[in-house]
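Contributing new records

If you add data, match the layout below exactly. Sequence lines come first and carry their own label; structure lines follow with theirs. Keep one chain per record. Anything else will be rejected by the validation script.
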Amino acid sequence: RITSPNGMLTLLTGVNTSGQPYYELQRGKRTIVSTSLLGVRLREGDMERNFRILSFSTAGKDETWTQPWGEEPHVRNHYNELTMQLAQKKGLQRQLNIVFRVFDDGMGFRYVFPEQKQLKDFVITDEATEFCFKGDPEAWTLPYDAGYYEGLWTKDHLSKKGKVCTPVTIEAKPDLYMMLHEANLTDYSSLNVKPVEIKDGNVRLKAELVPWSNGDLVRAKAPFVSPWRMLSVENKVGGLITNRVMLNLNDPCKIKDTSWITTGKYVGVWW
């Protein structure tokens, strides 16, 4: 269990009786993301079930950093972090770590494949990541099968959606707005989601990744990290505009001297 710095958000995690990792997210006394499963499937074998917990470790950060350019010059990066270290009970006993960061206004998590003899080069064929939302809320989404990112956004209940691109903007009344997306997308397939189960008034979304032409989703070599799967959480829809969870989950700027970066104007056809 780990809470946000102000104590409003609480994330719970562990493994179930099948050895599959899971998480839940609460805001105050209200569950906003119910039990959702985690894991990945590799061409080299399943890394989804049969895990045992090796250890938990915690960390945190409270810093203010300066943007080279943006809506505001200074951004506060304040979170508590929990790392769950896992190892499979049988077979190759491969290890997988899951890192959670909880902010006052959202959370993120990512998979970490540590360096190990049992896992060198590997191919991810599916990601078992789930997001189970309470009460079938309405959401604004862009359809995956539009073929381009100029498709029409539509608003409907999550249960009536097909496979959609992220970000997914969710209105869960009363006074709860969320944005599901990803951050630090580096050498990895981009994230889509699809409803796979509607049960007890809840809607379970599963990660659907964009494949290479041969069907591979991700080609990687340990040590390796996935992008962050993230959720912004706000009381008002306008708060999603100024929410900085996604920005803070990306790596710091690697350009040492940013004094030459200035804004400008462009006229043309971008594609």
